[in-house]
Design brief:
heterodimer; A: Four Helix Bundle (Hemerythrin (Met), subunit A); rod-shaped; B: Helicase, Ruva Protein, domain 3; two-stranded antiparallel ribbon; 13 helices; about 45% helix
Chain lengths: ~325, ~325
């Protein structure tokens, strides 16, 4: 129960986290693209040119990049969300909405960038994108200025000109860093397997415990209900095999009972003597016609109980360690 | 080397009793043959299972000592034939000669008329002489001049062959190889064992250890009879068949094991059970003797010779790939 609740909470967190990350990258990336390629201080539908808008090849390239990136992002998002089953209605609506946005955005953003961009003939020569502003031209200025004043004014202009070149550059760099960080974060989030490693350990250990208990129960039921001691001994050995499989030592198709025992001992089986005794009993019950009676059944039961205790203690050991870490 | 011992009552032996006596024989032999626990056990299995043993390995590894030690400890007559290119069939089986006193043709038995025959370097003699041994091995009898003479019981051939030399040797044909119940490889000793062997030689002053005779021909036959009382589950017989058939389907094998190979595998597995003091065979018994019982019966494809892959390697792979009997029997066994 607790495991299910934990898994459900983890899944919900994963879905919402993926949605948030996808939307964040979409918004930051879209705004950055618009700011860099379009005119930053005019209306939404006004054609213009941003700081990187001077080079038409760069504009087209970035538009294509955003298209491909958006499509890739959508694909990854669908994979990630598709792996998480059983979404509740709120999560489902959220996922549907983001899927639609992620479908439309990769097409719309590059389209708008290309449509709204002002592909001017002179833009390529300057590259700064400020040619539409009426900058004062020294050749058009009819009034000559004094050399000192001219000198001081030229210094102020060059400072202003330097700042106007440095600040957009810094802004661009900052935006690129933000987009890259957001993209990396999203990629890590989407590339992460649906079930994180540490909780999976809990689930596996729970399964092992269940299988172990089930195997031991099968053996004990066989000991209790039937009158056939031979069948009971064989069932006990089968239960031991199940227990070993639950603890990680699975019988191979070509394995003989002794080979399985040797591999289990090599794997750190804590109750070697009991396992050897049960293996010997099994071989006699399985491959001979010797009469089997209650004493065989009793010895098999005792050996199985000892093995189950040993395996249970070994299995619960790592769980406790994991639980504290 | 031999010291007489009172013959115990060995009319009938249970598999457990036979196993205990075989274990005692092996313990005695281990005082003379240092190391080689598994080859010694395999030769013992061959004797218990009523077959002949081919020991294939390099010279100087103690093959002759091993054969002679078994003969001494088991109380069996022992003869040795050094096979050479000029050895004739009559040198093996014996031949009639004219007795001037009685004016009759009298048969003089060859060295094959013994309990334990050591056929040393059997691949050094031509096929005609090898074939003379064939009937003796298969039928425990020889036919000379139209009359058939039975060999003493038990009759065991322990043959040795040098697998490295090709000059002046005649490779045993598949039909003759098939007559050997198992092939044993001795192998070199571990360094510590080799040092122990040298120390033992220095300490005992004599070239060879003196062994006690612990058994006799009658008891060997009783032990063989005990092997026949070992039961084999149907699932294990199917497992044996699966192993044999796997040799016929393996891509590296040109000619697989014969049905005689299956019989040999079953008998050796029963003998292994006796040696483990059991009267029933387990999958471990079958697996432990599958390579010695079948590897010399398969013919590998020629290209494998270049890749230094031999029959033992292929058989090991087969044993590790064929499905062993499952835990739960298909048909319930009544208590």
């Amino acid at each position: 129960m607790g495991r299910e609740r934990t898994a459900g909470g983890r899944r919900r967190h994963s879905t919402i986290g993926a949605t948030q990350a996808a939307l964040t990258v979409l918004v930051v990336g879209g705004v950055a693209l618009g700011a860099l390629l379009l005119h930053p201080d005019t209306g939404l539908l006004a054609k213009g040119r941003g700081p990187l808008g001077g080079n038409p090849v760069l504009v087209v390239g970035l538009a294509l990049l955003s298209l491909l990136g958006g499509l890739g992002l959508r694909e990854k998002y669908r994979e990630q969300v598709g792996a998480a089953r059983e979404l509740n209605p709120v999560e489902q609506r959220l996922v549907d909405g983001v899927s639609r946005v992620l479908l439309g955005a990769p097409l719309v953003v590059p389209l708008l960038v290309l449509v709204l961009h002002h592909f001017g003939s002179s833009g390529s020569s300057h590259g700064s994108g400020h040619e539409s502003l009426p900058l004062p031209s020294p050749r058009l200025d009819p009034v000559p200025t004094l050399p000192p004043a001219q000198h001081s004014g030229h210094a102020g202009d060059s400072t202003h000109f330097g700042l106007t070149r440095i600040l957009p550059g810094l802004g661009i760099a900052l935006l690129v860093v933000v987009v890259v960080i957001a993209g990396l974060h999203l990629w890590r989030h989407l590339a992460r397997p649906p079930a994180p490693e540490a909780p999976a350990k809990y689930a596996t250990l729970d399964d092992e415990q269940e299988r172990l208990a089930q195997a031991v129960n099968i053996g004990r039921r066989a000991l209790l209900d039937g009158t056939d001691a031979r069948a009971a001994v064989i069932a006990c050995y089968a239960a031991m095999e199940e227990s070993l499989a639950a603890s990680g030592v699975t019988r191979r198709a070509s394995d003989s009972p002794r080979e399985l025992l040797e591999r289990a001992v090599a794997g750190g089986l804590p109750t070697e003597a009991a396992a050897a005794a049960l293996t010997a009993l099994f071989r006699e019950a399985r491959y001979s016609t010797h009469p089997m009676d209650g004493s065989h059944r009793g010895r098999a039961a005792a050996a199985l109980a000892e093995i189950a205790d040993g395996l249970r203690s070994r299995t619960s050991g790592p769980e406790a360690v994991t639980g504290t870490s | 080397m031999t010291s007489p011992q009172p013959a115990p009552d060995h009319d009938t032996l249970t598999p457990r009793q036979a196993g205990e006596r075989a274990a005692a024989v092996l313990d005695e032999i281990r005082t003379a043959v240092v190391g080689k626990a598994e080859p010694l056990a395999l030769v013992m299995l061959g004797i218990l299972a009523g077959g002949h043993v081919l020991i294939e390995d390099l010279p100087g590894l103690g093959k002759t000592l091993l054969a002679r030690s078994f003969a001494t400890t088991l109380g069996l007559d022992f003869r040795r034939i050094q096979f050479t290119p000029d050895l004739l069939p009559s040198d093996v089986t014996g031949a009639p000669f004219y007795d001037q006193r009685t004016a009759d043709m009298v048969f003089r038995p060859g060295p094959v008329f013994t309990h334990l025959l050591l056929a040393d370097e059997i691949n050094r003699t031509p096929p005609k002489t090898q074939a003379a041994l064939l009937e003796a091995m298969a039928e425990s009898q020889v036919s000379i001049d139209g009359s058939t003479r039975s060999l003493p019981k038990p009759f065991v051939v322990v043959a040795t062959a040098n697998p490295i030399e090709y000059e002046g040797t005649y490779t045993l044909p598949e039909a003759q190889l098939d007559r050997f119940l198992l092939r044993v490889r001795m192998g070199y000793l571990e360094a510590s064992e080799e040092a122990g062997m040298l120390r033992a030689r220095v300490d005992r002053v004599a070239p060879e250890a003196v062994l006690r005779t612990l058994s006799g021909p009658g008891e060997v036959l009783a032990m063989r009879a005990a092997v026949e009382r070992v039961e084999v589950d149907d699932d294990l017989l199917e497992y044996v068949v699966a192993l044999v058939r796997a040799t016929r389907a393996h891509p590296h094998i040109q000619v697989g094991a014969s049905p005689r190979g299956g019989l040999a595998l079953v008998q050796l597995a029963r003998a292994r059970a006796v040696l483990d003091l059991r009267d029933y065979v387990t999958p471990e018994d079958v697996k432990s003797v599958a390579v010695p019982a079948l590897a010399h019966r398969v013919t590998l494809k020629p290209e494998l010779w270049v890749r230094q892959i031999d029959g033992d390697d292929v058989m090991r792979e087969i044993v590790q790939s064929v499905r062993a009997p499952q835990t739960l029997p298909r048909t319930p066994i009544a208590s």
